[in-house]
Amino acid sequence: GKGQQDLWLALHPNTREKPQYYDAILNGVEIFKMNGSDGNLAGPNPIPGPQVTADPSRVLRPSTSQSKSRTAIVAGVVSGAVVLGLVLGLCVMVAYRRRKAGEYQPASDATSGWLPLSLYGNSHSGGSGKTNTTGSYASSLPSNLCRHFSFAEIKAATKNFDESRVLGVGGFGKVYRGEIDGGTTKVAIKRGNPMSEQGVHEFQTEIEMLSKLRHRHLVSLIGYCEENCEMILVYDYMAHGTMREHLYKTQNSPLPWKQRLEICIGAARGLHYLHTGAKHTIIHRDVKTTNILLDEKWVAKVSDFGLSKTGPTLDHTHVSTVVKGSFGYLDPEYFRRQQLTDKSDVYSFGVVLFEALCARPALNPTLAKEQVSLAEWAPYCYKKGMLDQIVDPHLKGKITPECFKKFAETAMKCVLDQGIERPSMGDVLWNLEFALQLQESAEESGKGICSEMDMGNVSDSRSSGIDMSIGGRSLASEDSDGLTPSAVFSQIMNPKGR
Q1: Bias regions of kind Polar residues — which residues (predicted)?
Q2: Residues annotated in the binding site for ATP, as ranges?
């Protein structure tokens, strides 16, 4: 037979089909010997035909128009995918924000709904935009929560904003005395400045706050007016004005110690309710003696919620926010870190306690440098054992040593520099109630009130038999004569709204 014969395999494009590509890559090939007609595979190898070489010039290249068309299609598909992704992302973000807002949305029932306080940042910055935002928001409130007054009613109630009816002036605006319902109901009317951006926030926040919260020691909002670019709030009338008006720089008679203590307790109840009684923690942020009002029965009510903010949730320890408040009462830790907690209110309330005890402003620039800030001077005197030297002279001989020690220690703990070391408002309230009980017990027994208070060792709580623990809430005392907390402290454990 014939010897071995080389077999050549040539690959080339089919020029009749006009392929797009001329070059090709061969991954593998198998060649089988074809059998003869009789089925015998032992036949000779077939003789290969002549090799045909393709002419590259005859191979068609893709046209420029086809290439551009394909590029346009690809670009269109990619652009469409990007736009679709952005739209979907925007929809997801809007849905998420609405869901988050819904979690804070109050129920229509005033007894079950609480403060959402999602107002900061919702106002427009333009002049007319402010009014529209405020008006649309206020008008959306259920009518059963607060009353809507016309501007004509407000003018009639204040005798056309008679200056002789001005009760006070604050950052939000003037407060007027007024009468509504034919002169049968006295009210306080706060008229805001519509050109103030902060005023818009305060107006919205205060409506949101006070229309949802009801408590004996929180000032009550009767209604509002939003006509003619006005921002007007109508409150219950507080016959005895502010707490500060009865402490210093006033013609009013100085308050007796027991009454000051009861006012502090009332304010503490209001703050404790804000921190724990509502659905979400509410931080007042502007606790001071001018924001503690007194009604005709001398019941203390916390007011001015324009700077209030919802506190942190369970999975957060603080709220990061721009520092706001009043100098002299501002929590130094909050000022340094811009992290707001309910302990910031505790610090401010500690300054209020020292004001009640010493009858002097939180800041007095006319004094020596070390005495200007009461929040710094009072603790210094406390540590030096000379706190009694800066007590209001009208209180000399009127405070029992046990009550004085308990009150001073409570105020001291409130103004500690580190918020984590300060007591909660519940602990502050408990200790103030205990201090009042010590005072009343000593007055009833006719003992313990010295003509000259000897408080040289007030800073050392171990020097007396009284357990000064704030966190532990112990009533153990050798001098308490078996006092029981059940009646006095019942409202602390169950801070219901009224």
Answers
A1: 487-498
A2: 190
